Amino acid sequence: MSTFIADWLNILLRWAHLVVGITWIGTSFYFIALDLSLRAREKMTPGVFGTAWQVHGGGFYHVEKFTVAPEFLPEDLQWFKWDAYLTWVTGFGLLITQYYFNASAYLIDQSILPMRPSEAILISVLSLVGGWFLYDWLCRSRIGQNTPLLATIVFVGIVGAAYGFTHVFSGRGAFIHVGALVGTIMACNVFMIIVPNQRKIVGALMKGEEPDGKYGKIGKQRSVHNNYLTLPVLLMMVSNHYPLLTGHSNSWLIVALILIIGAMVRHFINRHEAGDHFKEIGWTLPVAAIGLMIAIVMTAPRTDPAVAGMEVSDTEVMTIVGKHCVMCHADHPAHEGFDEPPKGVVLTSVDKLRQFGPVVEMQAVKSNTMPLGNETGMTEEERQQLGAWIAAQ
């Protein structure tokens, strides 16, 4: 595939992914907030669990939620599903375009685990499928009836998957696969559980039968799971832009912190919308803040003792850059994956290297993000020499 076509495909998929993702997240957040705002009132339609009065855009809205389902359904019943389906489809399309088509550059790091692109892609697909089935089995088991226990096991499972990914894929590949795994679980919750259960309820009503309330409860459980996983997965999906996350030696621990921070913030928002007093939910914010501070400290820049006192000449550093960087970062890249230098970074001269020094230091010295997939086999000693030269400028 030509770089021109690949770039346009990437842009269009990314744009579509954002649009449908925003729609899915918006409806998810809205319905959870709506559910938590329901109140029992003196006069309600028979079979109604609670109602909510809302105002938006200059209009007033009165919403009712039935305990199970109404006695009859209108012809214009609206389903909320395609935004979830399309979010996953466009996301997987991006995974294929960005990581599968360029597996040797973006997905594989030979210094972590030597393998062929086909092997990396197979591991990727199997991990996404296997992750869903394991999560679904947990929810259907007795463990699924114990919310704190289930939440703990799912948390440990995602962190365990992150640990495994960091020992199989590149830093960027590992982080994006945590996001893809969680996103697959969320989309499958809609496709495999929530919507089918709603169809069972609708089917019973159409037959004149009383629907089983368990289907609504199961759907609600999975919907809540999706709600709490949304904030962490959003950060995972943009992580490839931040080597301080993906290039950290213990990035799987950062994943654990992101899960905690996101869940705490989401819980605070949910319970605030439910009307809980701040004294009852305020503890979540300090927990999130502590998690954030730990993540910041973990990723803070550190001076490598091996670099101190090391003298590297312009000629030596340009030899390193010429060997590992210029194939992509030139006015006319020689790398088949690029028609233009990534992010406009050109490193063909000492002055250019000095100009982009801080970027190079973050990407290739303080993390192993560059070269992509370490295709050129850049050594730790060369990274130290590059870092010493940049520090001396």
Automatic annotation (TrEMBL):
Top-rank taxon: Bacteria
Domain Urate oxidase N-terminal residues, every copy: 4-298
InterPro entries, sorted: Urate_ox_N
Record keyword DNA damage present: no
Keywords tagged on the record: Membrane, Transmembrane, Transmembrane helix
Keyword Transmembrane helix: yes
Membrane-crossing segments per the record: 12-34, 82-101, 121-138, 150-169, 175-195, 227-245, 251-269, 281-300
Protein name per UniProt: Putative membrane protein
Protein species of origin: Hartmannibacter diazotrophicus
